[in-house]
Amino acid sequence: MFRKLAIASATTFVMSTAGFAGGHAKDIVDTAAGAGSFTTLVAAVQAADLVDTLKGEGPFTVFAPTDEAFAALPEGTVETLLKPENKDQLVAILTYHVVPGKVMSGDLTDDMSAATVQGGTVTIDLDNGVMVNDANVVTADIEAENGVIHVIDKVILPAS
């Protein structure tokens, strides 16, 4: 029953994003930049020198925190991470939000683990909607030419 609810929720997310960033014509970076709600994420990807990677062939699955998710971090966190001397930490956090391959919401199973580009793992929970670690997926299956974006409401952090 939970799986059916999660799939129904994911279907609702997909239907609500039908016109999102013009479909498959753009890569992950351009799709995120065109959405207007990922300016912090795009700035972080630029500061971490990950633009070319995420514009690459892929495919990639990106759990993309919104600007509001970044704003919810403790004051000064984003500014500190964007400093050149903190690039390695920024890269680790950003690549923790990326899973190799194209994982659509229909591919998810409850309590599944997925290896991230950063080297850690994220856990998917389908019991109360769709969650990645402790972040809610608020919009799923935004397709790009080199992968898929799932919008999350919280920045997820790798274990330190």
TrEMBL record:
Protein's UniProt keywords contain Cytoplasm: no
Q: Where is the FAS1 domain?
A: 25-156
Q: Which SMART domains has this protein been placed in?
A: FAS1
Q: Does the keyword Signal apply?
A: yes
- InterPro entries, per the entry: Adhesion/Biosynth-related, FAS1_dom_sf, FAS1_domain
Any idea which UniProt keywords this protein has?
Signal
Segment forming the signal sequence:
1-21
Pfam families (alphabetical):
Fasciclin
Q: Mind telling me what this protein is named?
A: Fasciclin domain-containing protein
Q: Which organism is it from?
A: Ruegeria spongiae
